[in-house]
Write a structure and sequence with these properties.
- The protein is mainly alpha-helical.
- About 70% of the residues lie in helices and about 5% in strands.
- The chain has two domains: about 1-70, Arc Repressor Mutant, subunit A (Orthogonal Bundle); about 75-200, GntR ligand-binding domain-like (Four Helix Bundle (Hemerythrin (Met), subunit A)), CATH 1.20.120.
- Strand 2 and strand 3 form a beta hairpin.
Length: about 200
Amino acid sequence: MESSTSSTLTEQLVEYLQQAIVEGDRVPGEKLRESELAHHFGTSRGPIRDALRRLESQRLVTTTPNAGARVTSLSEQQLIELYEVREALEGMTCRLAAKHMTAARVESLARLLEQHKQAIERAAGREYFRQQGDLDFHFQIAAGCGNKLLAKAVCIDHYQLMRMYRNKFSAHKGRPHRALIEHQRILSAIAERDGELAEI
């Protein structure tokens, strides 16, 4: 019973810290002290340590021996590389989705974009970029691309780190509207089964 309770607590800690990091409440390079986090959440260091390990596997946290854990901070070159990987992976998922995505998933994607459009109108676009999982446009495309390894690379391996930096740079004026237009174009290409156009 204690193990189950500990696991649930760890999951809650992961979710809380993940959101804080992705949305910028915990900034890149910030020290994550186990003792302070344990005191803040009223728990022992064990669940905190487990949560930090989980966040490290998501690339949101970097742990250095004898120095502890910090929110991941990418250099300019690392950021360029991350965006190059993102562009390549998402482009390929779009191409494959045009070939493999079911009609039902395409319809679901269209409904999702309509929700995104309404979110932009309500909140000047900020909420659009905070969507995740089933409410994330590229997450949904990857899930329906028909390639499990590629979907894992997009939805698990790099996903949270990409969200973190996408949120960081998404507030630029006009960016949400441009992104919505781009997503509508991709959806149209997928619906028309035009993989080449979807990938561009």
